[in-house]
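cron nightly-structures :: item 1 of 1
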Amino acid sequence: MSVARIATLGLVLVSSVGVASEARAWCQSCTVEAPPAASCAQSCFCPVDTNPDAHFLFWDRSCMELSVMDMPGPAFTTAELDSAIDRSFARWTELDCGGGRRPGFEIRRTDDRALCDIAQYVSGEGNANTIAVVHDGWEERAGHDRAAFALTTTFFLLSTGEIVDADMELNEEHWDFATCPEEGCMDGSVDLENTLTHEAGHFFGLAHTNVDIESTMWACADAGETFKRTLAPDDIEGMCTIYGPDALPSECRFTPRGGFDPFCAEDRKEGCGCRVAAATSSAPWSLLVLFGVVLGWRVSRRGARG
């Protein structure tokens, strides 16, 4: 079994977008690398008709656990992070696909806290779908751009595109996250729920939309905005199409492949969370202005893993 991973930059700050379209489109993540994108409008890319190595990404299990690190930020508690995660994932799992049908997922947070702050999948051993707040060393990680609010890494089978693990990282080193009021934050803070709802879309296998600026899966965002908390028709159509009737098995298995293990692979023999960095206060927020520049898809490491 060969497993690869792709790291997807989440929301990136922009000062203005200048793109509008009445068209609707959604995109699905792919096993092959997309060409670099030069704007917030990122083209769908998965040449399944011409490349035998190209497959769309998808989950083939209906029940999954999320393990959240106990690493709050200066402006939010772990309990507030947990609540934002629950609401963000519920927007995708509880949406109505028509006639009362839902996509078919059951997602729950485990009480066991993740003890590894890096995205990782270990073939033949325990794993966890982790959500980590990164306080330092963001740019030292492969594929991590300082302009990104967050990054989601999905691990998948090269032969089919089936996702076997997904890990989410929030860039608290360069951005100040908070639970913003409905009208948004005016002090430069980044709304937790706005970002997490977008990243949850990547978790389920959705890529950035290529035309719909109003959708949750649009690649760019302004600091403090909250409208991505609410799914657009684009987002709903994508989720309901990928996970149509009978797309997911009826069997419910919450335990990750290989069993649950909260530690980084390097720390398991000692049984300690040695790689977990201590939480530190982030530097004062300063405005970063990008004019539609976004890195989009980036493969941080690709190859056989078992």
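cron nightly-structures :: done
The chain has one domain: 1-47+57-306.
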